Amino acid sequence: MRDILEGLYNTDDEKGRQKAAWCSFFFYLFLLLSFIISICASVKCTKSYLNKTLFTYKFPMYESATDIPAGVPVSLSVRGYVQRGGGFGIYRNLRLEKDEEFRRLKTEVLLNGKVLVAAYTGKLLLLTLNGLEYDEDFSYDLPLDRYRRGIEVDHLIKLSESRCVVIGNNEMITVTIQSEVIGKKEVPTPVFGKEHFILEEAETTAFPHVDSLDNTTVAFIFEKNYQLWAGTATWAGEGTESRMEKNKVAIANEECIYKFHGVAGMSKDKFIIAAVGHPNNGTEQDRVPGDLRAKVATVASDGSLTFGEWTTRWFTDSSNWFSLDNFNSWQALACYYDGFEGNGVVAINMFLAEDRSKVEFGGYVMVENGGASIDYQKIEMRILSQDRFGVFFPDASANGNLIFMMGERTANNELTRIGSNFVVARQARRAKEGNFWFSIAPVNSFQFTLLDSFKGTLNGETITYSSLNMGYHYAYPVGITTNRGGKEKYIQFNGVYTFAANSDVTLKPGYTYYTNSKGELVRGRPYGYNHAEYGAFYVDTGDEICALHNQIGIAVSEKELLIRTY
Fold it and tell me: Which top-rank group of organisms is this from (predicted)?
């Protein structure tokens, strides 16, 4: 150093020595600063620090969600708030019973998501729910019909959070669901109206279909003398004195009936009537394709009905059960088996025209590409939220197992599938002549129930069981919560998340991990094998099913997870 300074300055005089001294001072100062900076940089560049700063961001929380601890996978609500868990999945067999068959099953959820009402032949089953958990059930007998026969259920229609209507044997029975506190628990009980509404006394009346128009009125259709009739009825009275009162009935189609019919209530003065299958007026006719067709019924202020013309969806061939529901007052959805699509399952948009007098068909999506049906079989489709719908059906191309699929409408009203088809219930292996009864019921805009039963024969013995499954559909998971934040929560979106040493989490390195609505970690296959090319369409642990887009990361050690969302 001295040699360098002497080369720069003449140190023989005072001025030169001062310059050399200052240079020495700054040299050692900068050397010290570089040492300090290197220490700081080594701290700032650690994996934990980068994860906390570069990959961690703050988001608001709902007041009810402030108890989410660190280490929980989360998603964001439509308002950008943190919510526990994420993705799409089903909790299986929350209630599993042998020797129980739900013939002609229909379900609805009442009392603000607390009670699942299941109506089936002669019975009404009330199952109490706690979020996505099942507590217990209570069974009641349905009233007998006017001929003292048991009710063969056709429909169960929800009018409000405490009122529903059971339709069967061409009768409507009002049901009020109440909740009583017995001991320390709430017990739901039904109150049946003593007076039953009768569609028609004629022996030729058959195949009623019903849907709600508002919280007091239903629209219904039925077949009589090879004609299709329609009408409305309104709830009157309370408790045991409640009843459905007929408004007016009119002929909706006098030329013929079709093999299968359905109805969707759009608003208090409009409903859609849809039909598939071959026309039948009591005489032998040439076989023609079973086109999907629909018309609009208008309810006047005095209750009288007028009907628009049929709108036909050409180049379809369906003569099987179909399902109909509506998103709102101007858009409905039909789901049916189509012979021109290899007996696949099709979901198609149906819109009310601008003047609301006719139906216009929109885009469609293939729910199952082919081979879904080989005989007459039921199909259930329900609107689950303002944009999503679920389809439930036995799929012949999947060995006859019971399949659930979810779909969505986009911002421009196109239809698309979400994820793959989930196998919810299986026929007993090698079971012959088996039959499923099944139903969907939305709990709220992001949860739903799937109730089913199966009866078949195996080696000459009868096999019967029923099961309750609960589903959810949240936004995709975005990251994992950290231990920072109070009313707002910090989420780590990327990088390696390290779980606390004293936590219960023990990961298996190399495996892909997913989450569910509870924010739990669900182990899947080793990373790289979790896709369709290796036969992985979803994650099935036995107790639950998770979609592949529930992915949250890859385990790199027993306590470290490389966050990698779908």
Answer: Eukaryota
Phi, psi dihedral angles at 51 (to 5 degrees): -65, -35
How far, CA to CA in Å, does 160 sit from each of 163, 175, 436?
A: 5, 11, 29
What one-character DSSP code corresponds to residue 196?
Answer: P
φ/ψ of residue 562, rounded to 5? -75, 110
Q: Which residues pair with 192 in a beta bridge?
A: 175
What string of H, E and C letters represents the secondary structure of 420-441? EEEEEECCCCCCEEEEEEEEEE
d(C-alpha 343, C-alpha 290), whole Å: 13
Cα 231 to Cα 248: distance, rounded to the nearest angstrom: 6
Name residue 136's amino acid. Answer: E
Give strand pairing partners of 187. 180
Tokens of 347: 């979901």
Distance of alpha carbon 258 from alpha carbon 322, whole angstroms: 12
Q: Are strands 551-555 and 560-563 parallel, antiparallel or unpaired?
A: antiparallel
Q: Phi/psi at 274 (nearest 5 deg)? A: -125, 155
| Confidence at residue 49, expressed as pLDDT on a 0 to 100 scale | 61
Sequence-separated (6 or more) residues with CB below 8 Å from residue 318:
260, 276, 277, 290, 291, 292, 336, 337, 338, 339
> Token pair for residue 69?
């601890």
Rounded Cα distance between 242 and 555, Å, is 59
Write out the DSSP string of 352-373.
E-TTSSSEEEEEEEEEE-S---
Which residues are CB-neighbours of 4 under 8 A, at least 6 positions away?
none
Quick one: tokens of 239?
């408790």
Residue (of 323, 212, 320) closest to 274 by Cα position: 323
| CB-based contact 73:85 (threshold 8 Å) | yes
Task: Delimit the domains of the chain by residue range.
Answer: 2-44, 47-78+485-563
Q: Helices then strands (H, E): number in the chain?
A: 3, 42
H or E stretch covering 277:
none
Q: What are phi and psi of 103, to 5 degrees?
A: -65, 135
Side-by-side strand order, sheet with 560-563: 496-498, 560-563, 551-555, 511-515, 521-526
The amino acid present at 497, given as its one-letter code, is Y
The sign one gets for the Cα dihedral 169, 175, 181, 184 is: positive
pLDDT mean for each 10 residues of the chain (566 residues): 53 68 76 76 61 76 78 92 94 93 96 96 96 92 94 97 96 95 87 91 83 97 93 96 94 91 96 92 74 96 95 86 94 91 90 95 90 80 96 88 94 91 78 83 96 87 92 95 76 91 93 96 92 87 94 95 90
8 A C-beta contact, residue 319 and residue 259: yes
CA neighbor of 525 nearest in space, from 425, 557, 514: 514
Of 95, 129, 135, nearest in space to 114 by CA: 129
DSSP string, 26-67: HHHHHHHHHHHHHHHHHHHTSHHHHHHHTSEEEEEB-GGGTT
Q: Which residues contact 535 (CB under 8 A, 6 or more apart)?
A: none
Which pLDDT belongs to residue 5? Answer: 47
**For residue 328, how many other CB atoms are within 10 A of its CB?**
11
Q: Are 311 and 358 in contact (CB under 8 A)?
A: yes
* Structure-token pair, residue 240: 């045991």
